[in-house]
């Protein structure tokens, strides 16, 4: 890594830049190192149209760019940045370098990347850093399906191969170390996807009904907890309907939500639920995934109440179908809750 940076940095040493510029080939080699943190500094719309796989998105033109980037990055690890043509990312690289990050910028941006026939993806990813500097990546896959990657480990939440005409290619992903299933509805439980992601080392964690249907799996009931390895702990939580006329969809006591504790980063996967009283007892939550599509889960008003109860640092609405969740970021800004809307549908 030191030799590569020295080679890349010949031009920056002459111009006294605080960051390194790299052409496409050098940049591709650089980001192949798993220790490198990759940031796309374009707008969310540009990012959604196609980005380099594994890149997190932080818009350099946002008012809180440094704060948002610093929340996702560790200064102990190198950073790679890019934009459309290299201009915005050079600005971002300069800002990050002034904050003490070691930064490499892609010369020519994603336009040069694509001109060299390098691959891009539309799968959205968010990156967070744990208390000890470990990166945890979240991939928005489909509806309620989430992929989480940390420390070489693969977690799949409610993997489903196909829904509403959209398809997830699980064959292109590594086998899962852990699969969590919240309940048996077909938009959460897909035996084909589970089988495709499973090898002899995969641990499947689910409620009793799904374990019964599959004939395997570690059963967790509401209130149970497990230490899965030195970095990962999980708690199973209630997830149910409370509105009259909707109680049959998710009866109390049957389904699970989960809190994953990854090296101190606490992630609430709510599952299919309304704003239930148990949400007031979750303790500190860094990241929350909460559903929003009545009659099956929450209305937007219920989701606002739930978010203000749980108080996550970052909220991801998911499972939202045709529900308009676009107003949530502005509505929760005064509460200090960052809302990130990803294309789960």
How many strand units? 21
Biggest sheet: strand arrangement: 6-7-8-9-12-13-14
Average of pLDDT:
92
What kind of oligomer do you see?
A: single chain
- Report the C-alpha radius of gyration, rounded: 21 Å
Which strand-content bin applies to the residues? 25-35%
> Which blocks of ≥5 consecutive residues have pLDDT under 50?
2-15
Characterise the protein shown here.
A seven-stranded mixed sheet has the order 6-7-8-9-12-13-14. Strands 15-16-17-18-19-20-21 form a seven-stranded mixed sheet. The chain has a five-stranded parallel sheet with strand order 1-5-4-2-3. The protein is 25% helix and 26% strand. The radius of gyration is 21 Å and the shape is globular. The protein has 345 residues and is α/β, with parallel strands linked by helices.
Layout of helices and strands:
Blueprint (H helix, E strand, L loop, with lengths): L1 H7 L1 H6 L4 E3 L1 H8 L5 E4 L3 H6 L6 E2 L7 H8 L6 E4 L4 H12 L4 E4 L2 H7 L8 E6 L5 E8 L2 E6 L2 E5 L4 E2 L2 E2 L10 E3 L10 H7 L5 E4 L1 H7 L3 E2 L5 E3 L4 E8 L15 E8 L2 E5 L17 E5 L8 H11 L3 E5 L9 H6 L4 E2 L6
Parallel strand pairs: 1-5, 2-3, 2-4, 4-5, 9-12, 12-13, 13-14, 18-19, 19-20, 20-21
Antiparallel strand pairs: 6-7, 7-8, 8-9, 10-11, 15-16, 16-17, 17-18
